[in-house]
């Protein structure tokens, strides 16, 4: 293995920019000689790409959301403030002291979540952040953030397990990395599910995973009217990652005791344009007002353990992982992602997701560490 590896960092002078292409840089740094206490060193094979990357980059959360955060200029092989990428898959290559090498053996495939842990060829990471997986394939990039955000939002905020049947769920941005997981987990819970999307390719994918009603908001004459006709009693849960006009449609279509689960506003936050997506303008009227009995709440996946306790969260993690492993829930990988190779591939993936054209989970692959 090379003594150097590459990673992506924020350029400090451009901190808080949302333009990934110009606000970041690729650096070559030394591979650490060893992992720290209770840590392992992982060779990253695939990195998941998502809206959270831009939110982190602009100081929305993680170490860069602290008081007076400072992305570092001098790059080292460690995980530093300013490193990027939130979810990845890899293979353990070294174990630190106090790590049980039988539980975490060299060669063990793992996936993981964190801040600055993914857009790099090598990472040292605590074992507490790891999930064992059968093989280091890109499908598992969807587990640490996308799948757990889907399942956690539906169960913790939407309280889908306590709802009486029949259950109705609307998922906006349903063909994205998190959205297509939310569709399937809602189906696992016995719901009738509607999904909105913005292309014919996305429509086809949603039908293939069992979405009951699929509406293309770019071509449907009146999305709100069509959804209202299909679900005259409204939706028990609206699971929204889009925001803007489509998010407001969801608010107006809640059932009398429905819950609006927000996970982000990708149409506004990720486009990189001043006015957001053409169909989801930032300048849209203020949010629709909820009626008495209705509820709206944001779900942030890393807060899951605090919301339901560690044991409750561990149960959600276990059931989510099992559903993916046994094929109950299918990870749909964006077909274009297979060509995004090496650290440079992250930039192609970022452009892909920014365009809104991805169908399913988008990722980049790192065939082997390398650098200067």
Please tell me the CATH architecture of the largest domain by its name.
Alpha-Beta Complex
CATH topology group of the largest domain: Quinone Oxidoreductase, Chain A, domain 1
Rg from alpha-carbon coordinates:
20 Å
Q: From N to C, what is the helix and strand string? A: EHEEHEEEEHEHEHEHEHEHEHHE
Helix fraction? 25-40%
The portion of residues forming beta strands comes to: 15-25%
Q: CATH class of the largest domain, anyone?
A: Alpha Beta
Mean pLDDT across all residues, rounded?
91
Q: How many E strands?
A: 14
Largest sheet: 6 strands, antiparallel
Q: Low-confidence parts lasting 5 or more residues at pLDDT below 50?
A: 271-277
Annotated CATH homologous superfamily of the largest domain: Medium-chain alcohol dehydrogenases, catalytic domain
Give the number of domains.
2
Distance between the termini: 12 Å
Structural class: alpha/beta
* Tally of helical segments: 10
Attribute tags:
14 strands, Quinone Oxidoreductase, Chain A, domain 1, globular, 6-stranded parallel sheet, 2 domains, Rossmann fold, 372 residues, 10 helices, alpha/beta
């Amino acid at each position: 293995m090379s003594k150097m590896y590459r990673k992506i960092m924020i350029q400090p002078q451009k901190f808080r920019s949302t333009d990934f292409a110009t606000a970041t840089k690729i650096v070559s740094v030394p591979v650490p000689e060893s992992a720290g206490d209770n840590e392992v060193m992982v060779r990253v094979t695939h990195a998941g790409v998502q809206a959270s990357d831009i939110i982190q980059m602009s100081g929305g959360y993680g170490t860069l959301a602290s008081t007076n955060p400072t992305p570092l200029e001098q790059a080292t092989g460690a995980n530093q403030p300013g490193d990027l990428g939130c979810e990845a898959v890899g293979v353990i290559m070294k174990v630190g002291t106090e790590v049980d090498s039988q539980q975490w053996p060299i060669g063990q495939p793992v996936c993981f979540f964190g801040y600055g842990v993914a857009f790099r060829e090598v990472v040292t990471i605590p074992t507490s952040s790891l999930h064992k997986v059968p093989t280091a394939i890109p499908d598992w990039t969807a587990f640490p953030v996308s799948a757990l955000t889907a399942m956690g939002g539906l169960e913790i905020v939407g309280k889908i397990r306590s709802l009486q049947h029949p259950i109705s769920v609307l998922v906006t941005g349903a063909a994205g990395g998190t959205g297509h997981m939310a569709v399937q987990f809602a189906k696992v819970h016995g719901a009738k599910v509607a999904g909105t999307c913005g292309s014919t390719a996305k429509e086809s994918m949603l039908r293939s995973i069992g979405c009951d009603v699929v509406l293309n908001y770019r071509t449907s004459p009146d999305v709100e009217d069509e959804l209202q006709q299909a679900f005259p009693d409204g939706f028990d849960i609206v699971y929204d990652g889009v925001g803007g006009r489509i998010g407001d449609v969801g608010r107006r279509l809640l059932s009398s005791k429905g819950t609006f689960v927000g996970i982000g506003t990708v149409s506004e936050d990720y486009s990189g344009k001043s006015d957001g997506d053409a169909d989801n303008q930032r300048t849209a009227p203020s949010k629709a007002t909820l009626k008495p009995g209705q509820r709206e709440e944001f779900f942030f996946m890393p807060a899951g353990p605090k919301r339901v306790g560690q044991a409750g969260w561990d149960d959600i993690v276990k059931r989510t992982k099992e559903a993916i492993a046994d094929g109950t829930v299918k990870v749909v990988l964006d077909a274009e992602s297979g060509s995004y190779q090496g650290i440079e591939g992250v930039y192609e993936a970022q452009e892909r997701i920014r365009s809104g054209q991805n169908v399913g989970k988008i990722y980049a692959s790192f065939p082997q560490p390398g650098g200067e």
